[in-house]
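Below is how a single chain appears once it has passed through the pipeline. First comes the sequence as given, then the structure the pipeline wrote out for it. We keep one example in the README because the format questions we get most often are answered faster by looking than by reading.
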Amino acid sequence: MGVGELYGLFACMVARRSWKAVSQGIKNKKLDMAEIDELKLYAGALIPKISEVLHRMPRQMLLILKTNDLIRNLEHVLGTESRSDAHIEMSKCVVRSHYEMKLKNSHSLWEALRIKLKLYWALFKIHSYEWYLITRESIPFLHLS
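Resulting structure:
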């Protein structure tokens, strides 16, 4: 990513969590009010370092971060933070766009067919993961975490 020694801050920015939570594993530590207060306390002091991280990053990554931030804010406003619907839909759109661009640049029927198959395989994997999440939420004994 080009962030060098600021990788820890980058990880915190992506996860929107404290370094303690990131280093312990964000799945292992739920976001609580103490962590939210800690983030608010240190965010202002870290603005110069955050700016440096953003400056070092490729522009495409900044677009992804901004999109992720917008989705998280929408989820917060709608009260759906614990669901992953928006990120799954974004993943489907990204996959479709990626393969549509490859398809436009294909030079033969076989290459186009191969690209289409890769597209459908990638979408199948995303849909499978989506169904796994739905099943995991609706069947309590499958909740292994």
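DSSP finds seven helices and no strands in the chain.

See the next section for the split statistics.
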